[in-house]
Amino acid sequence: MSFVTEIASEAQFKAEILETPGTLQVIEVFQSWCGPCKAVQSTFKRLYFDLNDRPLKFYSVSAERLPMLREYVGKCIPIFLFWKDGKQVEVVVGVQAPALNRLVMELSLIKAAEGA
């Protein structure tokens, strides 16, 4: 079972990100020539399994794949977008494991508390 879903099209982005309320979605935007960041995978995997009671999903997408990500094309550093209820709520530039961990914990806890 993979804990990261790759977004392959605008239609998939719309269906899984924009039209899925109640879930914190963390999207890694990467360049097609280098692929998703391997260094952050262990952090995301731990969070995925530790927080399995919270509405949380991880995605990855090539910046070249979606027109809305055009501003990130050519960046040599991964970008992590945090979406909730169809809106982008945070951005982390680069592999900053402490910041990524803190945001996932905070934003998923807020959503879990709102749903309770």
TrEMBL record:
It comes from the Eukaryota. Residues 1-115 form the Thioredoxin domain. SUPFAM superfamilies: Thioredoxin-like. InterPro entries: Thioredoxin-like_sf (IPR036249), Thioredoxin_CS (IPR017937), Thioredoxin_domain (IPR013766), TXND_domain-containing (IPR051766). Gene3D superfamilies: Glutaredoxin. PANTHER family: NME/NM23 FAMILY MEMBER 8 (PTHR46135), NME_NM23 FAMILY MEMBER 8 (PTHR46135:SF3). This is Thioredoxin domain-containing protein.
